[in-house]
UniProtKB/TrEMBL annotation, chains A, B:
The keyword Metal-binding applies. It holds the Pfam family Beta-Casp. SMART domains: Beta-Casp (SM01027), KH (SM00322), Lactamase_B (SM00849). Zn(2+) 1 binds at H242, H244, H329, D352. This is Transcription termination factor FttA. Residues 384-577 are annotated as: Beta-Casp.
Length: 636, 636
């Protein structure tokens, strides 16, 4: 059936199901959802069940939009909005988008704008015609979030075209008589870095992740030139499990190559992705390397990004439905569930995941309506790769901080901007608040503060305890006074030139670049200071050299190479990883409901992937296999 | 390096290596070979070593052609040719092709035209300028061979363009830094029928076989629509292991889809392929089905076919060399050896093969300069799939024939036109000649006689004993007087209406169509007659029903359906198969030199492929795997 026919068919069905006297003017696909235009938005707003029932009956996501003719002028509308919402909601900004009939309302307490079951929103619609969309006023101002929202507004016309075209492709209908599902590994199999997989059926092709291996020049990019991926417009959509560069760092390259399809990810993943991509370009330029793409390609990707919240079942291809679930790895990280065909097959791609509740996140989800195949990460898949518990890690860190501060020393913690930094921040804030460690300043340098701002923008993506703390107790740990963002060269110089007991969290995590180097140069020679590693240090990085015990460390700066004498203490605190350790990996599968039939391992060195696959096979009597780059396996 | 540069570079190198005073006018790629044009063909002809040494030094196939300016007019030339060759050579035809400067000489004894080490040929070149090419005068006239030769002559201009373009693509040079080799199964894995595999590297993609599953409407074609094969012009070349429809039946479809690349196969495979493709169209039309392609597509394929003899090492892509070896399965069947990269990997694709010397062919080759991976057929891969020896089978057949003829009965043998028919013919001829069975007529109906004519055209593809019999003893069994081709409806009617003791070999092999039905209808009710199966009868065929013991067999003809009463004897003679039995499959790998590292099984039902893979693994401690359709495995 041609899309036009599908649409007119849907319109007829909707009209049949509407209460008497309710009319619609047109229907159109927009990305994965069906937009219903009406001249009577009030009637729809009156009855919250209409849309819910329609969505259920038609098995698709539906939004109702006012026909542009019934919209109240913006200047009048904003008055009505402010009249309707309670003052405590703290509306801080708004923006009218006539193309979609939407008004974006930025509020400190979005819940109050939404109202119980969306009551207040419906009231607004009834009064002004516009469809209100509520976003949170970030408690910490994030340049990234601000820029992205601004960018989306500026490009709303392009975006509307993109969404319409994506929507029509999703609803193009199935044509093949064959039924099969296969998975091709283009990167990240028996290795870490450049994760990239393709799920394909006779109807469609979905790319999952498109990472860059920043640690390797030879094997930097996935095998994107093979026929399964090239030319790139054969791909229907890109699905991103989370925002780390080894999972999304080359997405802008796809657009540089002419990709025109959508990216699906969670809202935090979109924002963190943009932040990390722009930083990647920056770092490459600073290292004198030619970045593989430009900021224009990053923006092109953003324009094509469709965000989905956890648990939203969404059509992303004629025969594929995607649902994200919490993965517990970093903010917005998602276990991705693909339902293929009409009950033909269900495959779960874990992405990186933590199967344990942490300070920031709930444990990764492993309950699904159905699942036959699982593709899972294996970073700590090796049988000896158990990690200390989080409590042990916290205690360990507290002790190190205490003993260093007792000597009036400085604690320097190299950390990645996204993920471990925020975990360590919460641990430190908690310890300071409870008086376990002294109330010293915790300096945050590099991109850590910006990444934290993004975390603060999306509290609904943090775990229950943290959310309660923020919303019910009004106590946002990220806003604690102990945190001091290093937002100028002057402040950094002051910290270095006037050393005082403090904790410094700074990028980069493996000490191969970033402001951490400045601090290290300044503090390495004093034996009262301590360098604390909370993350993995890869071969060839400065961090690894220090761990190996180098005592004299050559460093090159603008002014030439000189040698740093290494006197400060070096400590390693394991257990803060965002990855499941071996036990958790095994448990995740063992306790998965329903029990899967087959498990494929990836994202780990060769030994870890093979060891995990073989252990799961032995323990659970499931078919397992360690995936191999450039190989294709058949699920059905 | 651009092709033009490569060519001028090659020209320089050739000029450096030529003896003093020998000049060349130009060089050009033509398919896989390098053509050197000279105004002094006599000098090259004088010294047979020049070309041999050049080919060795440049590691490519070289032919020397006279510059058109030095060619003697054809009418004079033919006189010189007849003067030069001995009368006994029996020159029966000739054809001058000014585009390539060649004269095709058809002779009864090509060896005499060629002379010792090519002496006579060189003498001819010296005298007339033209390059002589010698083909055998077919001892039995084959319409197919004749038509193909005529077609190639008529289309020599197109062919020259095709060969030039293919040649330039082969020599386009390598560009990728990556090194990998992978194999994708598009058909024929864990099944028999629609064999189709792709070997790919970063530089090139080779399709091996492209068969049709004539027995299945649902799974008739390989998965040609997947990105590894579609669009089809990403494929560099198609390599055919042999001429059976399940290995080449859909090749014309590739040309219908716009394929422009070459087909590589042996000369007999080309001729048998054309015969079987045209028959396939014919049969489909007769059954009221729409054939998937037309005879124009068959011709397009022929135009793009480049024939290679056994043991000729040939560049077919910038990084792939192909060598065919005898496979012992049917006339021209080839074990295909691919040398990939500069020593990177060697993979042997067996195609269908018989690892035992038969009446017609030598045992399949399993010695190679190097081999790491083997992709092998598994028709009789199951552990209980042993077959009687050929001697037993022969004796068995002789006994059945004798006992039937004793009762004045008729022996009816349904058989495939290509392969088993000729084997059975030789067995019967031998038995008649030696007086083991009475000298009765052996009627050949259907395409058997035409296929036999093609066998007779290529005695160099038969085994040593048979070649000796034909060339040294002048005793060609195919020409024996006992064979009576049924070349008219009248003769067939006569055989039916005036029954007399005889043997009838007729297509089709599974009795689902063809003249065998006519004979069956006529002879089934007489209990003195015998029906002898020498080949496999698939489910759903008339042959299988008879084997199951049906006593009343409904047959539909133009005049409606009627029932044949089944009184004739039914016998099954196993052991004439062109496939290796289980023991031979195991031995083929065990005795392979050098020892391969990995073995992949295909071309067998699921159980046979898995059983064989697992047995080879256990017996030889090699990595093995049964391939799966739509999966890709990595060899390097």
């Amino acid at each position: 059936m041609a899309v036009e026919e599908v649409l007119s068919d849907l319109k007829k069905k909707i009209e049949e199901k509407l209460p008497n006297g309710t009319t619609i003017s047109s229907v159109e696909f927009e990305g994965p959802q069906l937009v219903v235009y009406t001249e009577e938005p009030k009637k729809f707003a009156d009855n919250g069940n209409i849309v819910r029932n329609l969505a259920k009956a038609l098995r698709t996501r539906i939004v109702v939009r006012p026909d542009p003719r019934v919209l109240m002028p913006p200047e009048e509308s904003i008055g009505k909005i402010l009249e309707t919402v309670p003052d405590e909601s703290g509306v801080s900004n708004h923006h009218f988008d006539p193309d979609v009939g939407e008004v974006i309302i930025e509020a400190e307490k979005p819940g109050l704008v939404i109202g119980k079951h969306g009551e207040t929103l419906r009231e607004i619609t009834k009064k002004i015609g516009w469809t209100p969309k509520v976003v949170r006023t970030p408690p910490i101002k994030s340049r990234t979030v601000q820029n992205i929202r601004e960018f989306m507004r500026t490009n709303h016309k392009d975006r509307k075209d993109i969404l319409k075209s994506v929507g029509r492709k999703i609803h193009r209908g199935c044509t093949s008589k064959d039924e099969w599902v296969r998975v091709t590994s283009l990167g990240g199999a028996k290795e870490v870095g450049r994760s990239c997989f393709i799920i394909s059926t006779p109807e469609s092709r979905i790319m999952i992740d498109c990472g860059v291996n920043v640690g390797s020049d030879d094997n930097m990019t996935p095998y994107l030139y093979v026929p399964e991926a090239y030319p790139i417009n054969q791909i229907d959509a890109v699905v991103l499990t989370h925002a780390h560069l080894d999972h999304q760092g080359l997405v802008p390259l796809l657009y540089k190559y002419g990709f025109e399809g959508p990216i699906y990810c969670t809202p935090p993943t979109r924002d963190l992705m943009a932040l990390l991509q722009l930083d990647y370009i920056d770092v490459a330029a600073k290292e004198g390397k030619r970045p593989p793409y430009s900021s224009a390609d990053v923006r092109e990707g953003l324009k094509h990004t469709i965000v989905l919240d956890y648990e939203e079942v969404t059509d992303i291809a004629p025969d594929i439905k995607l649902t994200f679930h919490n993965a517990g790895h970093i903010l917005g990280s998602a276990v991705s569930h693909f339902h293929i065909g009409d009950g033909l097959h269900n495959v779960v791609v874990t992405g990186d995941f933590k199967y344990e509740k942490t300070r920031l996140f709930d444990a990764a989800v492993n309950r699904f309506p159905r699942v036959e195949s699982v593709i899972m990460e294996s970073t700590y898949g090796n049988s000896n790769a158990t990690q200390p518990s989080l409590q042990e890690a916290e205690k360990n860190l507290q002790n190190i901080v205490n003993s260093t501060l007792k000597k009036d020393g400085i604690v320097l913690i190299p950390a990645f901007a996204v993920g471990r930094s925020q975990e360590v921040m919460i641990v430190l804030e908690d310890a300071i608040r409870k008086g376990i460690i002294p109330n010293v300043p915790v300096y945050l340098d590099g991109m850590i503060w910006e990444a934290t701002a993004i975390h603060a923008t999306y509290p609904e993506y943090l775990n229950n305890d943290l959310r309660k703390l923020i919303f019910q107790k009004g106590q946002n740990p990220f806003l604690s006074e102990c945190f001091k963002p290093v937002d100028s060269n002057e402040l950094r110089q002051k910290i270095i030139e006037e050393p005082h007991p403090c904790v410094i969290l700074s990028t980069s995590g493996m000490m191969n670049a970033g402001p951490v180097i400045e601090y290290f140069k300044a503090f390495a020679e004093n034996e009262n200071n301590t360098l604390v590693f909370v993350g993995y240090q890869a071969d060839g990085t400065l961090g690894r050299r220090i761990q190996k015990g180098w005592k004299e460390i050559p460093l090159s700066t603008n002014k030439g190479t000189f040698v740093v004498k290494m006197n400060m203490n070096v400590e390693v605190v394991d257990g803060f990883s965002g990855h499941s350790d071996r036990r958790q990996l095994m448990d995740y599968i063992k306790k998965m409901k329903p029990r899967p039939e087959r498990v494929y391992t990836e994202h780990g060195d060769e030994r870890s992937c093979i060891d995990l696959a073989s252990s799961i096979h032995k323990r659970n009597k499931m078919e397992t296999k360690a995936l191999t780059n450039l190989e294709t396996v058949r699920l059905v």
